[in-house]
Amino acid sequence: MLKKTIQPENYVPEEKLLKVIPDKDPEIKISLKRIPVVEKTGKMIPVCEPTLQGNELKYLTECVETNWISSTGRKIIQFEEAFARAVGAKYGISCTNGTTALQLALYVAGVGPGDEVIIPTFTMIATANVITHLGAKPVLVDADPYTYTMDVNRIEEKITGKTKAVVPVDIYGHPCDMDPILDIAERRGLAVIEDAAEAHGAAYRGRKIGSISDATTFSFYANKIITTGEGGMITTDSREFYDKARNIRDHAFSEERHFWHKYVGFNFRMTNLQAAIGLAQVERFDELVESRIRNAARYNALLKGLSGLTLPPQAESVKNVFWMYAILVEDDFGMNRDELRKQLAERGIETRTFFIPMHLQPIYHGKYAGQSYPVSESLCSRGMYLPSSSGLAEDDLNYICAAIKEIKEGARR
């Protein structure tokens, strides 16, 4: 019974879907060719790695030396306040990771069994999973073909009497078109909980992501622009939301007396150790963000005009922070996306495919049978991202682009 509860039936994708779903990740075969970059660094070029060049070790040492290593300690409050300031919000609530931050935010917003929450189908699976864990139903919307974020023109048709919230997801560092979403939510009485796991430092129409929605959630996983290894944050301007979220995050202990609980709470607390790393990272917030943007500009300059590649979007109204440098491999490149990834792997270059849409996931496919989201499926079949670390060396970036050009040239022969 347990197995049937947590696993889908034996799901075999339809033949037409096999053309959409990416191949397995290729092995990085750094020994096959003479690779100057690999010889120089002693390793392959990872798709992303943390940049820990500030006070991370110093602050961690302070935690250990003073014995403040758990979920109480000065670094937690300092990190929450510093991150909230950096994204233009009044309050920050740290959590164990970005997934629990989103689950907590939705729970505080009142999402529960029987409710519906509108999300993009083109997102990381955590967005759908937290809604499912709360007993609610994810309702899917296709992607915008230019920005890859939720198509705002498709939201209103998905609203029913059960809809409780909308979760716009800022994809690969590019913000959603927020004003239409906020307008719909206000007219229809819905909460807007923005999933900005990938958008540290981004902005929409001059407003910082983290200060626009009812609440915004961030991830601090090791590949994020700001990292704590694992960790997350909710930002909000609502004191009521802040107080409730902080309480529920910590088992909902009552201020009246210890071990006295008025809500069903969670243990989603961040440790002082994680916060110490986060605080050091936030001290270099602008530097880390600008590094991603600078890398993207260099990629653009080197890959511009190369037929068969669609470079990342940049809407006029937003600041895209290019968490990942995301490209589409088109038919006229000379090979498909998966073959390009294999050849890059042979040169020591790690890549990742785009997200597989929610309606194609084995655990969710049966719930969305018959539904089609052509833009998201197209993005899934063509998309990949290149190494995007904030600390990516210019020589490595040049090598990656030269490898792509070499591979394309070889496909012509």
Observed structural traits:
single chain, 413 residues, alpha/beta, Aspartate Aminotransferase, domain 1, Aspartate Aminotransferase, domain 2, seven-stranded mixed sheet, 36% helix, globular
By CATH, the architecture of the largest domain is named 3-Layer(aba) Sandwich
In the predicted model, the low-confidence regions spanning at least 5 consecutive residues are 31-38
| Helix/strand structural class | alpha/beta
* Biggest sheet: strand arrangement: 1-9-8-5-4-2-3
The CATH superfamily of the largest domain bears the name: Type I PLP-dependent aspartate aminotransferase-like (Major domain)
Helix content: 25-40%
- Terminal CA distance: 56 Å
User: What count of domains describes the coordinates?
Assistant: 2
N-to-C order of helices and strands: HHHHHEHEHEEHEEEEEHHHEEEHEHEH
Q: What fraction of residues sit in β-strands?
A: 5-15%
- Number of H- or I-type helical stretches: 14
CATH domain fold name of the largest domain:
Aspartate Aminotransferase, domain 2
Taking Cα atoms only, what radius of gyration do you get, to the nearest Å? 22 Å
Describe the sheet with the most strands.
Answer: 7 strands, mixed
Secondary structure blueprint with pairings:
Blueprint: H1 2-6, H2 15-18, H3 36-41, H4 56-66, H5 74-86, E1 91-95, H6 98-108, E2 116-120, H7 126-133, E3 137-141, E4 163-166, H8 178-188, E5 191-195, E6 203-204, E7 207-208, E8 215-219, E9 232-236, H9 239-249, H10 272-282, H11 285-303, E10 309-310, E11 318-319, E12 325-329, H12 337-346, E13 352-353, H13 374-382, E14 383-386, H14 394-412
Parallel strand pairs: 2-3, 2-4, 4-5, 5-8
Antiparallel strand pairs: 1-9, 6-7, 6-11, 8-9, 10-12, 12-14, 13-14
Helix pairs in contact: 4-10, 5-10, 6-7, 11-14
